[in-house]
């Protein structure tokens, strides 16, 4: 099978970083619009979105998501992918509500996992509720995989629903409490996604470049952005999401991967 063009996702905001720690963190709709345009220009085709309130704290507020989504979509041709995880402290109803806005995609973590000092709480009932809600409004889930068992849970979920949509997985490696970015982690997980599925990977923090390389080499896709990476090099803060996208796009081209346009990404993902 031919190697597909490389889909680059930008995880631009996340729920952890503050603006004090990272001056380049986009928060307002205007900043998100500018950031999305720069990232799209640099080769990103999916914009993974968390939003912040006026004080910069993570929120699952629907109006804040609406304003952000409209701003991004008016400035850039990117697939907007909402988080459904939010911050580890978010209540269940709040995590479901933004799906009413029908983003093209949403992330869905199919298991509970320790996350630093917190617990990223995803009991079976909530996973099912998020999944059913997504599919009822034609949102494609991106299964966010922090541990191998989450792949099996995603497959059980799809099989039980009988919904034959395209399966897309993203491996998030190196979160303290979850699966480390071991040298063979990307290849191992990729070997266990179902036939016909697509997958991407990201490593948080120091493991980022090694995971990126393994994903590109293995025919997968990649995610980068301030949610996952704080330092561009030792002691040097990332200046912007676009800086990270440019580096990953360059790596992709060096490794003989064409960079997917948004329309190629949509075709690959069955959107
Ligand atoms: Zn996220």
Q: Strand count, sense and closure of the main sheet?
A: 8 strands, parallel, barrel
Strand order of the largest sheet: 1-2-5-6-9-10-11-12
Q: Which outline best applies?
A: globular
Number of strands: 14
Q: Which distinct ligands sit in these coordinates?
A: zinc ion
Strand content: 15-25%
Cα-atom radius of gyration: 17 Å
Count of DSSP helices?
A: 9
Distance between the termini: 21 Å
Instruction: Tell me, rounded to a whole number, the average pLDDT.
Output: 96
Helix content: 25-40%
Low-confidence segments, given as residue ranges, are none
Descriptive overview:
The chain is α/β, with parallel strands linked by helices and 271 residues long. 36% of the residues lie in helices and 20% in strands. The chain has an 8-stranded parallel barrel with strand order 1-2-5-6-9-10-11-12, surrounded by 8 helices. It has a two-stranded antiparallel sheet with strand order 3-4. The protein has a two-stranded antiparallel sheet with strand order 7-8. A hairpin with a 2-residue loop joins strand 7 and strand 8. The mean pLDDT is 96. The site of zinc ion (ZN) has 8 residues, from loops.
């Amino acid at each position: 099978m031919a190697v597909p063009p490389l889909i680059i996702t930008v995880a631009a905001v996340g729920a952890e970083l503050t603006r004090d720690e990272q001056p380049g963190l986009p928060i307002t709709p205007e900043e998100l619009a500018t950031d999305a345009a720069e990232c799209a220009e640099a080769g990103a085709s999916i914009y993974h979105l968390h939003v912040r309130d006026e004080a910069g704290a993570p929120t699952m507020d629907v109006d804040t998501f609406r304003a952000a989504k409209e701003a991004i979509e008016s400035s850039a041709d990117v697939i907007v992918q909402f988080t459904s995880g939010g911050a580890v402290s978010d209540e269940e109803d709040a995590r479901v509500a933004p799906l009413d806005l029908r983003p093209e995609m949403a992330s869905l973590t199919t298991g509970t996992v320790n996350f630093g000092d917190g617990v990223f709480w995803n009991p079976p009932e909530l996973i099912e509720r998020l999944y059913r809600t997504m599919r009822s409004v034609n949102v494609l889930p991106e299964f966010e995989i922090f541990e191998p068992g989450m792949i099996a849970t995603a497959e059980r979920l799809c099989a039980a629903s009988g919904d034959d949509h395209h399966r897309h997985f993203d491996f998030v490696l190196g979160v303290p409490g979850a699966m480390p970015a071991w040298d063979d982690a990307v290849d191992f997980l990729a070997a266990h996604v179902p036939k016909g599925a697509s997958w991407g990977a990201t490593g948080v923090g120091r493991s980022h470049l090694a995971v990126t390389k393994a994903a590109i080499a293995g025919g997968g896709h990649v995610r980068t952005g301030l949610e996952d990476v704080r330092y561009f090099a030792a002691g040097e803060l990332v200046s912007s999401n676009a800086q990270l996208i440019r580096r990953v796009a360059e790596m992709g081209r060096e490794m003989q991967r064409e960079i997917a346009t948004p329309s190629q990404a949509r075709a690959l993902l069955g959107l």
